């Protein structure tokens, strides 16, 4: 069928072909989540190493029951933005529960973690201000910076000296803001938060930390990487998602009452978007209770990560990132090799996505294993075995493993 009588969209055909040729075309798949860290893809049951449900809460019976209960009480939709009428008693309860969990005065809900970053940055800086962003920051932070219209300074990954220099150069800007992932989503490594706090404080700059991958996984209470390394709640703006370890949907900003009041008045992705569904709120509330009550969930997933990394190193791979981070990247370099390897693993019963540019820098295409508390040491042993076989099939891999 031809959708457009004129040729104005023909360029898309060419661009898609170019993506194909470069090994960069993405195709959506249908993935049905199953219990015990499994999923079904194309009719085959696979070990699901592609989920950010780090604590295994998205399928937890109590979380599901809480979502159902919230839905039967308040219905399926948020109905309006929070400011108009979309903030139900459940939304208010969840904002309080997030503040309690994070140890902050207050918290504001956003439709997603992506929206939380975009809204938060846009409410903190604008024309005449400067925002400093790590080169490996998540797309939502990058887009937040761009949309804010503040002057953007991108610093090399974790280059503290460069940040301090740039901050000094922009001394005359009205406001300055440093934004960073706490755990970087594609490398599984952590930002030097204690140092960033010190640099920001010395320069009188604001600091925003995106804890998307660390919430629920790190810190004595599961608050994230800030808590893990002893960075106080008051020294930065904290952004999180309800969609990863919390197993629901949505995003949040946690901080002082005043900061949250400001977000409600200024963050456009919060003000002009419908509130979360009641079901998502109910699920998140129950997950937070489970995270508090069952610290062994985060300990389990972290111990699986240590096991996988040790076995990778023992079999000649290099394992980058924090030693116990649930994100375990296997750098292979070439995008086609990454895709080939991912397809091979799928044939042998494992869903491990290939990550390619523009998600990661050129030449660093990789497989990305995401571990969850639903996995077992046996799943890890089997993956290592199959990786060993895959490696001999994909000849080009021997070189890249030195990366
Ligand atoms: C996933 C992710 C987000 C976005 O969160 P969503 O709730 O999925 O929109 C933001 N930042 C980082 C670092 C992420 O990995």
Structure overview:
The chain is α/β, with parallel strands linked by helices and 403 residues long. The chain has 2 domains: 27-54 and 295-393, Aspartate Aminotransferase, domain 1 (Alpha-Beta Complex), CATH 3.90.1150.10; 61-293, 3-Layer(aba) Sandwich (Aspartate Aminotransferase, domain 2), CATH 3.40.640.10. Helix content is 43%, strand content 16%. The strands form 3 sheets. The chain has a 7-stranded mixed sheet, with helices on both faces. A 4-stranded mixed sheet has the order 1-2-3-12. Mean pLDDT is 94; it is low at 398-403. Residues 112-114, 117, 138, 140, 181, 185, 210, 212-213, 241, 243, 251 line the site of pyridoxal-5'-phosphate (PLP).
List keywords for this structure.
alpha/beta; Aspartate Aminotransferase, domain 1; 403 residues; seven-stranded mixed sheet; Aspartate Aminotransferase, domain 2; globular; binds pyridoxal-5'-phosphate
Give the gist of this structure.
The chain has helices at residues 10-21, 61-74, 82-86, 89-102, 113-124, 139-148, 160-169, 193-203, 225-228, 257-266, 268-271, 278-293, 296-314, 335-347, 377-393, 397-400; strands at residues 31-34, 38-41, 44-48, 106-110, 130-134, 151-155, 176-181, 206-210, 237-241, 251-255, 327-333, 350-351, 354-355, 365-370.
């Amino acid at each position: 069928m031809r959708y457009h009588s004129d040729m104005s969209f023909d360029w898309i055909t060419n661009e898609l072909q170019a993506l194909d040729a470069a090994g960069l075309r993405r195709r959506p798949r249908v993935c049905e989540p199953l219990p015990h860290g499994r999923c079904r893809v194309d009719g085959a049951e696979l070990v699901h190493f592609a989920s950010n449900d780090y604590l295994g809460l998205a399928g937890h019976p109590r979380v599901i029951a809480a979502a159902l209960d919230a839905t039967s009480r308040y219905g399926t939709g948020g109905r309006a933005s929070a400011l108009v009428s979309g903030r139900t008693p459940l939304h208010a309860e969840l904002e309080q529960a997030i503040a309690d969990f994070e140890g902050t005065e207050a918290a504001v809900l956003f439709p997603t973690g992506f929206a939380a970053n975009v809204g938060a940055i846009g409410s903190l800086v604008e024309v005449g201000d400067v925002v400093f962003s790590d080169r490996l920051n998540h797309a939502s932070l990058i887009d937040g910076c761009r949309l804010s219209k503040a002057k953007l300074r991108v610093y090399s990954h974790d280059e503290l000296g460069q940040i301090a220099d740039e901050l000094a150069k922009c001394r005359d800007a009205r406001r300055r803001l440093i934004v960073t992932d706490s755990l970087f989503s594609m490398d599984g490594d952590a930002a030097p938060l204690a140092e960033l706090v010190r640099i920001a404080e010395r320069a009188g700059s604001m600091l925003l930390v995106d804890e998307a991958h660390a919430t629920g996984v790190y810190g004595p209470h599961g608050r994230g990487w800030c808590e893990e390394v002893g960075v106080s709640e008051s020294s930065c703006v904290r952004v999180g998602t309800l969609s990863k370890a919390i197993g629901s949907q949505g995003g949040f900003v946690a901080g002082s009452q005043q900061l949250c009041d400001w977000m409600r008045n200024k963050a456009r992705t919060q003000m002009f978007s419908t509130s979360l569904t009641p079901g998502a709120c109910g699920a998140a509330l129950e997950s937070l209770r489970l995270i508090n009550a069952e610290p062994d969930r985060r300990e389990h997933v972290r111990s699986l990560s240590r096991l996988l990394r040790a076995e990778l190193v023992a079999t000649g791979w290099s394992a980058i990132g924090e030693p116990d981070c649930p994100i375990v990247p296997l750098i292979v370099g070439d995008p086609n090799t990454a895709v080939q390897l991912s397809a091979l693993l799928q044939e042998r019963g494992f869903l491990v996505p290939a990550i390619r540019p523009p998600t990661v820098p050129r030449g660093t295409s990789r497989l990305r294993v995401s571990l969850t508390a639903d996995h077992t040491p046996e799943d890890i042993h089997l993956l290592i075995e199959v990786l060993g076989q895959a490696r001999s099939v994909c000849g080009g891999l021997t070189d890249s493993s030195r990366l």
